[in-house]
Amino acid sequence: MSQERCDKDSTCETCGQEGGCSEQAKEDHAEKLLKKTMGKIRHKFMVMSGKGGVGKSTVAVNLSVALARDGREVGILDADLHGPDVPKMLGLDLKRLEGSPDRIEPVAYYPNLKVVSMAFLLPDPDSPVVWRGPLKHGAFKQFLSEVSWGDLDYLIVDLPPGTGDEPLSVAQLIGEVDGAVIVTTPQDVALLDARKAVTFSRMLKIPVVGIVENMSGFSCPHCGKTINLFKVGGGQKAAWELNVPFLGRIVFDPDIVENCDKGLPFVESLPNSRAAEAFLKISKKCEEFVNSPGSGAQAMKDTRTGISRVKAMLKDKKTLIEEV
């Protein structure tokens, strides 16, 4: 294929001339397309947790909605291929991805909030995704490079729990992640895994935006007394010990659970609740992190001790796939 054709936005599969290209040429074209798409996105956040069940997807969804309601152009990528819950939380679970001749069109929640998830491709909600590492890597590459994200202020990536295939692949493909938001609950077992997520981010030289302490206290609807279901303050203590920002606490609220099941983000449906007020402060801190002069550079000072083996894996796609 000529250089002129390779500069087009179309993928190799849709240009109609891929038969005349070498595999190396196709790979080079795919890399150019990925860089061009990512180059239109100002800031990329990865929302992580060391373990499941801490409300990571809830945080990712409400962060995206809060930023969009503040006038930002936002995209949210549901990178949990095996448990894609973002569409359900946004009331989009019956939607499907549509394709143009050259690109994949995301599903819109607002005109300025675009959503991509594996759930939009499944034949029914009960269909599992039974994939190993290479297939996951390929799916992420398509979601990041072949989707019509357009010019975004923020791309929020909701990662599955842990520090394995998915975070490694996403970090490699994006290239420059602006920051990781770590979600935890206050109890010790969750904090243990949250600390691993912080260390993981530093190994990959991804700045840590901060720690969110979710399910931090429960206000009894009958007597008004606060009950510490999962303790309180563990996330703040871990942030202090690890020398990362503490973004705030979100209380455990049954109304949040009910609205989440209905596909209603609580920052939109319960704007006057304690949880929504706390979360809006968290979203402001996330914006300040990337917009304040020198903030990213300061956060990177703690990432200088990266592990060479992980860096080599990120640089070498072949090695990464072989070790999955």
What is the tally of beta strands?
11
Classification by helices and strands = alpha/beta
Distance between the termini: 33 Å
Number of helices: 15
Helix and strand string, N-terminal first? HHHEHEHEEEEHEHEHEEHEHHHHHH
By CATH, the superfamily comes out as P-loop containing nucleotide triphosphate hydrolases
- CATH uppermost class: Alpha Beta
Radius of gyration computed on alpha carbons: 20 Å
Mean pLDDT: 84
The CATH architecture is 3-Layer(aba) Sandwich
Largest sheet: 9 strands, mixed
Approximate shape: globular
Annotated CATH topology:
Rossmann fold
- Please mark out the parts with pLDDT under 50 across 5 or more consecutive residues, or reply none: 300-324
Task: Please explain how this structure is put together.
By secondary structure, this protein is an alpha/beta fold. It has one domain: P-loop containing nucleotide triphosphate hydrolases (Rossmann fold), CATH 3.40.50. The chain has 15 helices and 11 strands. It has helices at 3-6, 12-15, 23-39, 56-69, 86-89, 133-145, 165-174, 188-203, 234-242, 254-261, 266-269, 274-291, 295-300, 308-315, 317-323; strands at residues 41-48, 74-78, 98-99, 104-105, 107-110, 113-117, 152-158, 179-184, 208-219, 226-227, 246-252. Residues 300-324 have low confidence and may be disordered.
